[in-house]
Each structure stands twice: as structure tokens, then as C-alpha cells.
Amino acid sequence: MSYCVGISTKYGLAFMSDTRTNAGLDDLSQFKKLFTWGRSDDRLFTLLSAGNLATTQAVVSEIDQDFKSKKSQLHRCKSMFEIAEFVGEQLSQKVKQHSENGINGESTFQANLILGGQIKGSKPSLFLIYPEGNFIEATEDTPFFQIGEIKYGRPILVRAYRQDLSMKDIFKLLIVSFDSTLKANLTVGFSPDFQIYFYPIV
After folding, report:
1. Which domain holds residue 55?
2. Which of the residues in the chain have pLDDT under 50?
3. Which of 51, 120, 129, 147 is the most exposed place for a label (fewest CB within 10 A)?
């Protein structure tokens, strides 16, 4: 199990993920679940992953290969919405590819993703991407997304989040949310990865 959070604020985006992957209490491993791609002149985006490790690694590999390609689709995207469409398509394809019966509620190859970032000339955005490839975007009414083991860390986010919180306070909020989850569920573990993105691109 995993625990990942992406939050949209007045000042930027904040991301957090744990690094524990388990196949039972006696089979624990550490794998990165927070990934970032960017070109300093015009775009930066971050991906958080939870779910089947083979599926999420395959999606990350496809994104990485495309971003490094001279004919990259991601370099041609004009908005974060278009990047979310690309990532959602990759996720849907990998789930179908790995599952004998395609996408279904019982599939063990499912995964969920949080995507956030900004392309120069467009607004910063945060998305929750489902295994089917469809997605929703964060709003003022729904400013954060969680994936993985979400129930223990959610109450503090609901109670304490404000749009005008400083990024320092957002970081503290994520720490408390992570600690609440860590103490309640053994499948979530240290060390957490954090990333804070301020809104510099105009």
C-alpha cells in the first residue's frame, strides 16, 4: 500500500509520498513513488503513483522515454490538461496490457496517479487520474487529492487546510497527515518524499 498527497494552494503545489512497497509484513521494499520531469524554460510536472508496482513503473518508463525523445508528445502539449490526457492514456493501456480480462473492478494491475504542474502560458493544475485513464481536476472546493491508504491522513487535511496557508505550513500539514497514516497502517512507511513547487512561470 502507498500514501500520496497532492495539494493546490494560493502559492504553489505540494506533493508527498511514502516509499514503502510490501507483499506481506515479511516482504517490505522501498520504491520511489514521486517523479518529476521538466524543461527550465517552459514546463514542469510531477507524478505520484499508488497501486500495482509493475503498472506504475511501466507508465513512468513510457513518460520518461517520451520526454527524452526528439519527437516528444509531452514537449508539444500546450496545457497540463493535455499532459493529463497523455498520462491517462498510458495508464489505461498498461492496465489493459497487464490484465488478462482488461480493466475491471477486480484487477490486481490497477493504479491511481496524481499529476500536477504548469506549462508556461497556462495555469498550474492538479489532477487525479484513474486506472481507466479518465481524470478530474482540483478546484477551490476540492484542493487536494490522495491516493493509496487515504483514510487516516485525510481528517487533518480537511480540518486544517486553507487556500492561503504558507508553503511552510502546508509542509507541516503534510507531515502530520503522513504521521497519522504511518502510525495507523504498517503498509505505509518511511522515508517520505516531498516536493514543493512555487508558481514562477507566467
Report:
1. 3-198
2. 23, 201-202
3. 120
pLDDT at 149: 83
Q: Which residue has the cell 490486481?
A: 108
Output the pTM of the full model: 0.89
The DSSP result for 170-198, as a single string, is HHHHHHHHHHHHHHH-TTS-SPPEEEEEE
Query: How many domains is the chain partitioned into structurally?
Result: 1
Residues forming a β-bridge with 189: none
**Among 2, 63, 72, which residue's Cα sits nearest to residue 31?**
2
- What 3-state class would DSSP assign to 15? strand
Where b means 16+ CB within 10 Å and e means fewer, 111-145 reads bbbbbbbbbeeeebbbbbbbbebebebbeeeebbb
Residues 96, 88: Cα–Cα separation, whole Å: 12
